Amino acid sequence: MPAVAIIGAQWGDEGKGKIVDLLAQQSDVVVRFSGGDNAGHTVVNSRGEFKLHLVPSGIFSEKATCVMGNGMAINPAVLLDELNDLKNRHIDCSQLYISDRAHLIMPYHILFDGIEEELRGGQAIGTTRKGIGPVYADKMSRMGIRAGDLLDKKAFKELLSSILQIKNAILTKVYGKAALSLEEVYTQYCEYGQRLAEYITDTTVILDKAYKEGKIILLEGAQGFLLDPDFGTYPYTTSSSPMSANACLGSGLSPFQLKRAIGVFKAYCTRVGGGPMPTELNDETGELIRKIGHEYGTTTGRPRRCGWFDAVIGRYSTRLNGFNGAVITRLDILDTLPVLKICTGYRIGARYIDYVPGNIKELENCRPVYEEMQGWRCPTSDIRNYKDLPLGARQYINRIEELIECPVNIVSVGQQDDQTIHISSAF
């Protein structure tokens, strides 16, 4: 069975955690391939409610091996806390593996993230200040520390010493901050290494074996496509690629092994942080959606910006990720609305466009062109068959399918794993 990627198709927070948890029951391996603890996946299943930040959402499957891929940025302290919480709640983590090539978030990454965001002032990006941008910058500057480095204490100290000399010079001479202690950082990370050593390995070997045996490999994305640093709303993006193209690079699979990409779309749009969002609703409807959907960030707790479904972005996402399947989540949040709107194009002054411009200023000036549809005004959270959905709900889903040019396989009508409508197989 080829690998299947689950990708956030908007700005993140689309409910990927639930979908991965659901599909993991049919999978043999689940791989998180990007991002760090700046992402948050909420999973609600028969074992309770869980808020994951690093561990793959497939951890609740009794048969799936879970892999934290080389494309991730891992804060060891956060990971250990998350593992302790899972174990205390009787979740088996013995089949979790960490790529020895995954980069580690160091104390100076978090410091630089906060300093740089403060210096941006009114132009702040709205980062989570978790050190994500700086760790990926160091990765590309060939100044990173990887999980496998913790397994050799002597080599690790030499590496850390050379890097910390540079970082401390910047902290003290440029920003006027106190230097970090080599011994303190070294001792702390050696302790992390001892506690995580059993999980750290060459995970490409695990994936290669699984693929050759015909196992189902699920690749779990973090954040959403519109936060991609190349094709998202740059510079208001994350620092690693959440796209299907990176699913292989961030896990260690060949691109030829990825045969299916499933986009997860929320039935409306939300966004956390700065940057353009053409369909944002700064009115009572936007506040109502936020209240009903409890739209607050899993990681930051910040209120999410809410707006109508943007089919221009949806079609763009489908095209660049190659989606051949889609999931619509949180349909139930729209149950009470009398009228719904879908953005089908933009106007920039007198000019009409039906694509997402790459220039951020141009995108900021885009005004949505809407198509109105009647709401269904009845509850959907207890419905399990597609044909039992109200006509208005089915028409809404069908119209989204047409506009994003991708078939919908699954519709979610609640947080619980059984609050799901399967239209066709995701695999």
Q: How many structural domains does the protein architecture include?
A: 3
Q: What fold name stands as the CATH topology of the largest domain? A: Adenylosuccinate Synthetase, Chain A, domain 1
Number of strands: 20
Largest sheet descriptor: 10 strands, mixed
- Overall radius of gyration: 22 Å
What is the overall number of helices? 12
Q: Mind telling me which CATH architecture of the largest domain this is?
A: 3-Layer(aba) Sandwich
Fraction of residues in H or I helices: 25-40%
User: If you average the pLDDT, what whole number results?
Assistant: 95
Q: What is the topology, as strand order, of the major beta sheet?
A: 9-7-5-2-10-1-11-15-19-20
For the termini, the CA-CA separation is: 9 Å
Salient structural properties:
427 residues, alpha/beta, Adenylosuccinate Synthetase, subunit A, domain 2, Adenylosuccinate Synthetase, Chain A, domain 3, 3 domains, ten-stranded mixed β-sheet
